[in-house]
Amino acid sequence: MTKxxxxxxxxKAEGITLKAAEIAVNVAFQSMEHALIRSDRLEIRxxxxxxxxxxxxxxxxxxxxxxxxxxxSKKLPxxxxxxxxxxxxxxxx
Length: 93
Prior knowledge:
Layout: H1 3-14, H2 18-37, E1 42-44, E2 48-55, E3 58-61, E4 68-71, E5 74-81, H3 83-91
Antiparallel strand pairs: 1-2, 2-5, 3-4
């Protein structure tokens, strides 16, 4: 499902305009994004949780040249699926 399909589904389900649905979806995603930027944990009951994981830097190799390179440390968002969603996906419901 794409963002536009989500907007259309919300508009249809709630009987609102596409513009109102687009605003709602954008606000939800922006709020989630800002929480992760602040390194807050984000939990959506029955769906899953998001958090920011810190990864240390390491020495790696350039696959093309074999040259040793230094890979910087980084932060990445991480999603952990909730138990209810995992069960629904597994059962095909």
